[in-house]
Hints:
Keywords: Signal
Protein name: PEP-CTERM sorting domain-containing protein
Pfam families: PEP-CTERM
Radius of gyration: 22 Å
Structural class: alpha+beta
Strand content: 25-35%
Bound molecules: calcium ion
Largest sheet: 8 strands, antiparallel
Domain Ice-binding protein C-terminal: 205-226
Number of strands: 14
Signal peptide: 1-24
Amino acid sequence: MLNKVKITTAFLLSFCFLGFNAHAGLVKIDDKSDEKKISEIATGSYDGGNVGTGADPSGFWGSNLQLVADGTVSMLFEFISDHAAYNNAVFAGEGGDIGGLDNTIQGSFSVLFTGVADDFLPFSFIADCGGFSVSGCTSSKGSVQNGSNSQGDQGNDVSFFISKKVSNNTNSIYYLFFNDGTNDLDFDDMIVRLTVTPAEPPQEVPEPGALALLALGMIGFVARKRLIKR
Ligand SMILES: [Ca+2]
Ligand SMILES: [Ca+2]
Ligand SMILES: [Ca+2]
């Protein structure tokens, strides 16, 4: 009788932890730079117009986006505008869940990302993407991955600017302004809106990690029971 109670409690606790993980985690800017308006940084003309953060957005240049806590998020990327001779592109995701778009495709895509606190969101901007496909580009004139974005060599290096968060209760929304590194800093070479939403990890099959946790618990329980019998 006591054993049954213990087993039930172990199972309930396991599912409590699974539930907690499923709902945790949105994003933060690592703000390696001071908050500035694009007009304070730009050396070329910023031609992005009003992107929902005002005509002269305030944010961080050379910074990166990280998860706040362990969890699964959905990342929706929407093309806003471009003002460049290059065909620039943005890619996001991992494994079999990779999406992307370029100046020609425009539109939007979304991917799921599961990570732990402080992980960088997996996305990259690529300058002058040739042969666009979901797996990448056949040629580029430089790229920058979130996590290694920096101010670099001013206008010669590719980099991006992240707007301050534009949020409501359930989403974290940022505008990302890519500069493709052709000797100016105008941050209008590709502009996308990133909406991050809490997401349930795929639930059809329990994750191996969760199963292992349950199995370990059961093994420990049986071992303890045997010790008591001795
Ligand atoms: Ca411009
Ligand atoms: Ca530029
Ligand atoms: Ca430009």
